[in-house]
Amino acid sequence: MESWNAHSFESWIAAFNYLQPHLVYSGGDDCRLKGWDTRNLPSAIFTSKRHSMGVTAISKSKINEHYLVTGSYDENVFLWDDRSMKIPISEISLNGGIWRLKWHPTNHNYLLSASMHNGFHVLSIEDGNLKLKAHYNKHESLAYGVDWCFKEEERELDCLLFIL
């Protein structure tokens, strides 16, 4: 087991690259998204300052080998190509701090967001661009978690919403 000081303020999230398990991504309250190669710690392989507030969500696609999404208290979701982490290939503002991002288990073009003060969102990726497909905010609580509920027999896109 390895440990290192990844961020100057609280770390909020860490995520492995499923296809290259020696790569780890982290986000913190210092507004930084960082990439790490566990074979060469403690130096980050990249640091992004694109988010203007704490990075709270990171999700690497298991299906599309180069897609990585990040979310932040700044209310933005960024879609990255992990071969070039200088600028995101697409971004969308969801008008609520992003707390969770979850890829669909079999359809790599769909993504869920739990957006704290603005409910839940279903996003799609069309021609490399993030698009809003659905939004639910008919509750009075914070949206902190979300997951897909895949009904194999019906091939539907259903999701489970965690309202706290």
From TrEMBL:
- Spell out the GO cellular component terms annotated for this protein, sorted alphabetically and separated by semicolons: cytoplasm
SMART domains this protein is in? WD40
The molecular function terms in GO held by this entry are: diphthine methylesterase activity; methyltransferase activity
| SUPFAM superfamilies reported for this sequence | WD40 repeat-like
Which PROSITE patterns does the entry mention?
Answer: WD_REPEATS_2 (PS50082)
Protein family per UniProt: Belongs to the DPH7 family.
This chain's protein is named methylated diphthine methylhydrolase
- Which species does the entry assign this protein to? Caerostris extrusa (Bark spider)
The record lists the lineage as: Eukaryota, Metazoa, Ecdysozoa, Arthropoda, Chelicerata
